[in-house]
Specification:
Length: 193
Amino acid sequence: MLYRIGRALFRFIFTVFFRMRAIGMENVPSQGAVVLCGNHTSFLDPPFLGSPLRRKVHFMAKAELFDIPVLGSIISKVGAFPVKRGGVSRESIRLAVQLLRDGNMLGVFPEGSRSNAGGMGKKGAASLALKSGAAVVPVAIVGTYSLFRRMTIVYGTPLDMSAYEGGSSEDLEQATEAIMKEIRRLHTVTSKA
């Protein structure tokens, strides 16, 4: 219930104040495990990525956020779970994989932190998808969250990850690069439109 209220509120805010345009929502499977992989430029990216969709999106969030009195309770109730700085714990990975195996949707930013925007990308998203058999949907967030300026989100077609199922470090690097390449392509195409 809280998630639906929050989603509706963010959808309203993004539509009114950032002229949100969502493209390709039909590319997001309506059921089953899905990893949404997006570029990361702002703390607003998680609600922006999830607000146009009907399905609930779970996110990893910095463990410190859960220590903030009211915020920690709210983000926990809307499906976020903690990750420690400096690396994802085994417990967080197990929880993420279990969420996916249970048929849920997980939002991940392969770039890692916002400061790494445009970087090579981390292997976690690819690893989670390959361990769980989840569909991987690349997502491009285009814009700068300037008031009354257009923000666009593009959900690409699910990627075929079968070539990387070996699970070796090289497979994960290639899978991550394939995801990042498609996110960049969607971003470039949309930016020029």
